[in-house]
Amino acid sequence: MVKRDNNFPIPDFEGVFKKLLQDLPRYVEVTAKNFFIDSFNKQGFTNENFEAWEKRNQPDYRPGGAILTATGALRNSIHTIEANTNNVTIGTYAAYAKIHNEGGIITLPVTKKMKKYFWYMYKKTQNEKWKWMALTKKETLTIKIPKRQFIGESATLMNELDKMFIDRIKQYFKTLK
């Protein structure tokens, strides 16, 4: 606090502002990362409203398993790309993240290894689908990946950050008393 001649204390606004700018990027970084990771727990993304991820077409594939979490690698790939007083950017280093986040169509060459896997799945499940995939004469498979957004712009996240920012300012001023 700065003292004036009349002994009326004036808060050190510049000091509070500097401290806030110093601490805020870390708070934003942690809040944003947790928000995006929580998409995997909720099985959907929240922008203005919650949008649940489309369910799998194949109930025999990992029955009871959560979507996009077979190994946890995609969820664990979410990290901070940049964090400073002007910008906090959260992203992922997983090569397949974009197709899951945005959806789309991918084309894969049918390999011997794939056919071997199809035979394995047929023997394990006795599902005819796997047999016909193993016997296919196609050289490529075209697969539609549904959009299952887990990271991106979110009005809800921005509202949380605004609230956090106001709460931090209030907290700093309480320490000045």
Output the radius of gyration. 25 Å
The largest sheet has its strands arranged as 1-2
Share of residues in strands: 15-25%
Quote the distance from N terminus to C terminus: 9 Å
Tell me, briefly, the overall form. Answer: elongated
Report the order of strands and helices.
EEHEEHEEHEHHEH
Helix content bin? 40-55%
Indicate the structural class. Answer: alpha+beta
Low-confidence stretches: none
What can you tell me about this protein's structure?
With 177 residues, this protein is α+β, with helices and mostly antiparallel strands. Helices cover 47% and strands 19% of the residues. It has helices spanning 13-42, 73-76, 97-102, 112-125, 128-134, 155-176; strands at 2-3, 9-10, 44-46, 50-52, 78-83, 88-92, 104-109, 140-145. Helix 1 runs antiparallel to helix 6 and helix 4 (112-125) runs antiparallel to helix 5 (128-134). The protein is elongated, with a radius of gyration of 25 Å. The model has no long low-confidence stretch (mean pLDDT 88).
Notable characteristics:
19% strand, 177 residues, alpha+beta, two-stranded antiparallel ribbon
List the helices and strands and how they pair.
Layout: E1 2-3, E2 9-10, H1 13-42, E3 44-46, E4 50-52, H2 73-76, E5 78-83, E6 88-92, H3 97-102, E7 104-109, H4 112-125, H5 128-134, E8 140-145, H6 155-176
Antiparallel strand pairs: 1-2, 3-4, 5-6, 7-8
Helix pairs in contact: 1-6, 4-5
